[in-house]
Amino acid sequence: MHYEGNIIRPPSEANSILLQVTVGCSRNKCAFCGTYKGERFRIKPDSIIMEDIAFAAKYCKRQLRVFLCDGDALIIPQKRLIAILAEIKKQLPWVTRVGTYANAKSLNTKTIDQLKELKALGLSIVYMGLESGDDVTLKNITKGATSQQMIEMGKKAKESGLKISITVLLGIAGRERSLIHARETGRVLSAISPEYIGALSLMLIPGTPLYEDYESGKFELITPLEMLKELRAMIEATNVSKGQFHANHASNYLSIRARLPRDKESALQLIDRALSGDISLRPEYLRAM
């Protein structure tokens, strides 16, 4: 396989065939992210992508999923993306799911009919980084979209038949807007009603604008207990028809796996036990991105 730069994928795609079709991220301006620092976004040549699909056809017969890397493969023009998915379908007939990252920008470039076309060719799930439902926070982290745009694009993906997994970031609003961020994020999640929600806890990365704000005192990182209070408020404000809420990433201080709405109260009770000291939190040295 021809890999370039940093390759990232969602935790749930750990056992997937990682097919790198783009290098970097089409936006690459989020204040908290240093993954593609200095990397110019580009779509890889079709010849290389097809070579990698052929390699997977020969050597990856035990893997049932494909994940299209890097940061935003959905931005690829429709005709080229159709060709990639058609080749996966042809050469990897055993694959049951194809996934990719998506953002408001890339989802906005596709019509519902185009998304349905991609769905028919095997694209099953898109991973969307919401981070926050609070418009002030979204502006502060230069996310490039408002909460309403996030809602509209999330609903668009769902209407096309795609499953959607949304990532949110605990601590990203700092101390002053912590609970506002939590409740507003719950509001947006409720409006989209995604099948999957993943909550990560902010880990500051040296060299990023947010880290520089932290160093200068402009951004105040909240404590582990404050992150738990934020998580509690977020879950309490989230009302989805049916979905899984996971806060079991290595960055989190407390591991939670809840099926909403069924497990909502038990998740809140678990957080309350941690806040009261009955449950130990993950120590700082064991946290990782």
List the helices and strands and how they pair.
Blueprint: E1 17-20, E2 22-23, E3 42-43, H1 46-59, E4 65-69, H2 78-91, E5 97-102, H3 104-108, H4 112-120, E6 123-131, H5 135-140, H6 147-159, E7 163-170, H7 178-192, E8 196-201, H8 209-216, H9 224-237, E9 243-246, E10 257-260, H10 264-275
Parallel strand pairs: 1-4, 4-5, 5-6, 6-7, 7-8, 8-9
Antiparallel strand pairs: 2-3, 9-10
Helix pairs in contact: 1-2, 6-7, 7-9, 9-10
User: Which structural class do the helices and strands define?
Assistant: alpha/beta
Mean pLDDT: 95
Number of domains: 1
Indicate the percent of residues in helices. 25-40%
Radius of gyration: 19 Å
CATH architecture tag: Alpha-Beta Barrel
Count of distinct strands:
10
| CA-based shape | globular
Q: Order of strands across the biggest sheet? A: 1-4-5-6-7-8-9-10
CATH topology: TIM Barrel
- Uncertain runs: none
- Main sheet specs: 8 strands, mixed
**Number of helices, counting only DSSP H or I runs of 4 residues or more:** 10
Question: What is the CA-CA span between the terminal residues?
Answer: 24 Å
Topology pattern, helix = H, strand = E: EEEHEHEHHEHHEHEHHEEH
CATH class: Alpha Beta
Can you walk me through this structure?
The structure is a single chain. Helix 7 packs parallel to helix 9. With 289 residues, the chain is an alpha/beta fold. The strands form two sheets. It has an eight-stranded mixed β-sheet. A two-stranded antiparallel ribbon has the order 2-3. 38% of the residues lie in helices and 17% in strands. Helix 7 links the parallel strand 7 and strand 8. It has a single domain, classed as Aldolase class I (TIM Barrel, Alpha-Beta Barrel). The mean pLDDT is 95. It is built from ten helices and ten strands.
